[in-house]
Amino acid sequence: MKNKILNIKNLSKSYDAFKVTDKITIDLHFDEIHALIGPNGAGKSTLIKQIVGSVKHDIGSIILDQEDITDLTDVERAKIGISRTFQVSSIIPQFSAIDNIVLSLLDKSNKTFQLFKSIRNNKELYSNAKKILKEIELLEKSEISASDLSHGDRRKLEVGLALAMDPKVFLFDEPMAGLDENGTNMMINLFKKIKSNSPILLIEHDMDAVFALADRVSVINYGKIVATGTVNEIRQNELVRDVYLGYEI
Ligand SMILES: Nc1ncnc2c1ncn2[C@@H]1O[C@H](COP(=O)(O)OP(=O)(O)OP(=O)(O)O)[C@@H](O)[C@H]1O
Ligand SMILES: [Mg+2]
What we know:
Layout: E1 4-15, E2 18-29, E3 33-37, H1 44-52, E4 59-64, E5 67-68, H2 74-79, H3 97-108, H4 116-120, H5 123-135, H6 151-165, E6 170-173, H7 181-194, E7 200-203, H8 207-213, E8 216-221, E9 224-229, H9 231-236, H10 238-243
Parallel strand pairs: 3-7, 3-8, 6-7
Antiparallel strand pairs: 1-2, 1-4, 4-5, 8-9
Helix pairs in contact: 3-5, 3-6, 5-6
Bound molecules: adenosine-5'-triphosphate and magnesium ion.
Adenosine-5'-triphosphate is lined by residues 15, 20, 38, 40-46.
């Protein structure tokens, strides 16, 4: 248990008779990126939503840093260190990029309801927000409204919001989707840097990114984990080749 920051056991969710996730057991070690791959509709996003707490699972348990969080709400889970799921909707479109980051920093420190004027004068807060914008290569666009950012830049901003929360674990659902090559490379380097502080459970369809980043890979198919191993082990696994036929592993 000691080397595991996140420990998921037998997590299951059915919609009527359809088992979307079926007794999923998966863990996340300190200092690692664990990629979750699988075909469309396999249950990846649902699993992340169950960990975040936005979808209630039927059975199973979730332990974060030796604490049982199975019965906590999504808000309680976010407070103790589960990064929010990757959804463009958590961005406030009419706010600038930097104000979105500032809000996330305030959320982390429970100061969301400070007067706006005093927030604006908080140099330390804005300086921390700028550091995050620099990490995600959005510093030049800090004053642009989120609604005017390109799709790729909004994905970067989402990662920035997660960074601002300084969570115990990151759960990223297709963070590279819509990024160009530069954006993808930036994200790969960023993830390598941040994983020692907060390990990452990563859903990603970009296999080059997965193979460049993952310490371990788990493959999910029809709601079940069918293999877990290192990148090399997964590449050589025949069952995985079957599941991924067409993906050219
Ligand atoms: N609220 C829901 N009600 C009924 N079925 C659902 C619900 N949410 C998801 N599903 C179904 O569960 C299955 C798994 O969905 P999920 O979004 O977890 O897949 P995924 O692995 O993330 O796929 P993708 O790679 O396309 O993002 C799909 O068949 C989906 O239609
Ligand atoms: Mg999905």
